[in-house]
Design brief:
By secondary structure, the protein is α+β, with helices and mostly antiparallel strands. 46% of the residues lie in helices and 14% in strands. Helix 1 packs antiparallel against helix 2 (36-85).
């Protein structure tokens, strides 16, 4: 028995597009069969629309190819930066354009220093990550010690033109008191530039009692029969930068609807993508500026607060205007409060 070949996603999409075009042409033919002039114009417009769509598809393909090209150029630069941070011997060409920023005494010592290997810059990546407005919120106090051991962050773009937005990050750690791994790899399978299908990561091998993504909570339980109480300890998730090193999958619409009424999750795939892209787009290319504290960022959280505050103030003003209108509005004259001739009845005041 011959198995029926499985249709690829591309084939299904092409079939759907073909059906859609046929439906458009059928609609034009049926609705304007008695008006040839309009029918011909709509057929011409349909043809131009096809041309526009073809150009748009070509543009998207070229953008994807350019993205892939420049991502590949970016990766070796990141490697050289990491080497310098971790104590690689500098070369004359790397600093020759900046002699004017050296003092006379420093210039004399430069050649001697260039012949030696430097020590790594301790705590470099922790300082850089904390200087970013978004990542600063992710890093808790208990995250800082293990992050001090972070020695290198490497970026690997996709090598597949069909999946240009996929990427991975490799984090190198010095020996530390928290986990056994010296390398953690985080891979992103992307649907498009901003949306991920899934993320996969090396499992962290936490040392005994050192898992900072968990916390212990104590709960008292009472025996209904005996009335005796006992205390139990339970491990639950807690906020931590290191929850970034977990596998995540995008949820479909039904799963999201089912969870709308549940307690808000500490983690989401969108958070993982945001952290990953912040590292690629901000941390790696501008690590020097973040380390120096001179990187200018847009504080989107602050802007949102400002917009929300302005919106609330406008709503308050609108409410006040409405109250003023109601207060100034004259009362209607009714039979109960009207005298002869429809004039309002005057209240009798006792002398």
């Amino acid at each position: 028995m011959t198995e029926k070949p499985i249709e690829t996603n591309d084939a299904l999409v092409a079939e759907e597009e073909d059906d859609h075009e046929k439906n458009i042409l059928k609609t034009i033919n049926e609705k304007y069969k008695d008006n040839l002039a309009i029918k011909l114009k709509l057929l011409a417009l349909f043809d131009y629309s096809k041309m526009e769509q073809e150009n748009s598809e070509k543009m998207s393909e070229e953008i994807d190819n350019l993205t892939l090209k420049y991502q590949k150029l970016f990766a070796p630069i990141v490697k050289k930066q990491n080497d310098v941070i971790n104590g690689r011997k500098l070369e004359e060409d790397e600093v020759k354009n900046y002699n004017e920023y050296l003092e006379s005494g420093e210039e004399a010592k430069k050649d001697e220093l260039l012949s030696k290997e430097y020590k790594n810059i301790d705590g470099y990546w922790l300082k850089v990550l904390k200087a970013n407005l978004g990542l600063k919120e992710e890093i808790k106090e208990y995250d800082e010690e293990p992050l001090k051991a972070l020695r290198r962050i490497e970026y690997f773009p996709s090598e597949n033109p069909e999946e240009p937005y996929n990427f991975s990050l490799k984090f190198h750690f010095a020996p530390n008191d928290y986990f056994e791994n010296d390398i953690l790899i985080k891979e992103f399978t992307m649907v498009d530039e901003r949306e991920a299908e899934k993320t996969e990561c090396t499992e962290i091998k936490w040392k005994e009692g050192k898992d900072i993504t968990k916390k212990s909570i104590k709960k008292k339980q009472k025996n209904k029969k005996t009335g005796q109480q006992r205390t139990t300890t339970k491990l639950v998730d807690q906020d931590s930068f290191f929850t970034f090193f977990r596998n995540m999958e995008a949820k479909d619409d039904e799963e999201e609807e089912d969870e709308e009424d549940e307690e808000e999750e500490l983690d989401s795939i969108d958070r993982h993508v945001e952290i990953g892209q912040t590292i690629v787009e901000e941390i790696l290319p501008y690590s020097n500026e973040y380390y120096l504290g001179v990187r200018k960022e847009t504080d989107f959280a602050f802007l949102k607060e400002q917009v929300d505050a302005e919106g609330a103030a406008e709503e308050d003003d609108d409410d006040e205007d409405e109250d003023d209108k109601k207060a100034k509005k004259p009362k209607k004259t009714t039979k109960e409060n009207a005298g002869a001739g429809g004039e309002p009845k005057q209240e009798c005041k006792q002398q």
